[in-house]
Amino acid sequence: MRAAVANDRHLQEQVRVALEAVTPPAPWLPARVIDDLRKREEGTDMKVQVESRRGLPVALVVAALIAAAVVAALIASRALFPPSPAPVGVQDHATAQYVAMVEADDQQFRAAQRPTTCNDYGYDSPACRQKLQNAATALQKFQADLETAHPPARMANSHAWLRADIARLVAMLQRHIGYIEAKDFKALFAEGADFTDALKSYTVDVTAMSNRLPVPLPPEYNPPARPTGGDTLGQ
Amino acid sequence: VHEGATAKLIEEAVKEGDASAFEVLLKPLLEPGYRLACGMLHDPAAAEDSVQEASFKAWRKRSQVREGAEMRSWFLAIVANECRTARRSRWWSVIKSTAPAEASATSAADPLTGMQVRRALRALDHPKRLVLVLRWYLDLPIEEIAATTGSSVHAAESRLRRGTEELRRRLAMDESRSG
Q: Is A124 exposed, middle or buried (0-12, 13-18, 19+ CB in 10 A)?
């Protein structure tokens, strides 16, 4: 390695060898890409490929924009025709308090799970393990807060879904820490896609709550028994 | 002259939405695109996804197509952008991305060198890593690297020099840590 560090050409060769090692032949790639393009061109696969990744958040953003437009219209109408002053409703206050708790706990989780440590130091570093532990701890606090919280009736469904998703994430993170400690990276990678899905569901839940929206269900998600009632705007 | 005329016809056909013509232009670019994505992500599966997504984006932007080297730079720029998005959007995958490679990439001669080099590469920021991969792994001329990164030749050279220095420094530090 010293020779490599001292000499540009040797360093270049070291880089080439290191990268060749992570570039296995993929003779099927042209066929896969062309097939995908044709399917998307026909429109049959476009929704699955694109909307499964981005459609849900986009739908939420659109719904949020519509909600914002409705709120703006209401504010404008109130400015034109001011209503008689009314005390702040107890239910609105409870909703605001509940959503603030959700947002604060979500912020703590996001701060704990930022990716740079694992990326910089590698999956086998103690710093990475600590990062996962921090993320699990933040989620457990979130879990505890949700257990003692009294969600407004219209958010009962969101509350149940969020609890289920957090429980799923906590269980996965704990397993991942175990895999890392046992250096069983094969098992760790095998759960990668599931974890991404669970994180996506969690994000959808929190975003919907922040915007006081009903929670849409990802099609691939296998839900727990759905609670009855609630999650309807205006109830 | 004939080849040039054919290329021009294909270019026009692509712009008019001819998917078969687009496939003709795209196919030779998939291999360098895949190598670039592997060099950036160190994860073959994620690299395939990025190339697939980049190909679809290229199709949607087909009005910008220019046949020849310009098209390669243009497509590689889309792949590079897709790799950046892939790294940002899936925090867990940054853990995932390091390991399959490490597990399969060891050589009998020096099992640690590949890991050390890839780890040092991963620690570079995206622009520096990109020019190093384009120059040292894809063997592109500096003019094409500049076109791919959307910078001047001078800026690309400067970034390559700084990237090399940082990579060398990180490898030296890594080596001194490991004794």
A: middle
ipTM above 0.90, yes or no: no
Q: Mind listing the pLDDT tens digit for each residue in B65-113?
A: 776 668 899 999 999 999 988 776 554 444 444 444 444 444 444 444 7
Looking at the partner chain, which of A22, A36, A118 has a beta carbon nearest the beta carbon of B38? Answer: A22
| Contact list, B100 vs chain A (CB under 8 Å) | 189
Concatenated DSSP letters of A57-98: HHHHHHHHHHHHHHHHHHHHHHHHSPPPP-PPPHHHHHHHHH
pLDDT digits 0-9 by tens, A151-192: 887 787 778 888 888 998 999 899 988 988 887 777 776 776
With CA atoms as reference, the chain B residue closest to A31 would be: B27
Alpha carbon of residue A141 to chain centroid: 17
User: What SS3 state is found at A25?
Assistant: coil
Indicate yes or no: CB of B34 within 8 angstroms of CB of A23.
yes
Distance CA A114, CA A88 (A): 38
- Residue pLDDT, tens place only, A192-210: 667 766 777 787 778 777 7
Tokens 């790294």 label which residue? B87
**A71 touches B: beta carbon within 8 Å:** no
Cβ of B52 within 8 Å of Cβ of A17? The answer is: no
Percentage of residues in chain B having pLDDT higher than 90? 44
Option in B56, B110, B171 nearest A40 (CB): B56
Q: What is residue A54's DSSP assignment?
A: I
CB of B66 closer than 8 Å to CB of B75:
no
Question: Is A173 in the B-facing interface, judged by CB distances under 8 Å?
Answer: no
Contacts (Cβ under 8 Å, ≥6 apart) of A98? A149, A150, A151, A152, A155
| Position with higher pLDDT, A2 vs B149 | B149
By the CB < 8 Å criterion, does A2 face chain B?
A: yes
- Counting Cα atoms < 13 Å in the Cβ hemisphere of A166 gives 26
Residue A76 has pLDDT above 70, yes or no: no
pLDDT digits (tens, 9 = 90+) for B118-130: 888 988 999 999 9
Q: Using CB atoms within 10 A of its CB, is residue A9 exposed (0-12), middle (13-18) or buried (19+)?
A: exposed
CB B127 within 8 A of CB B149: yes
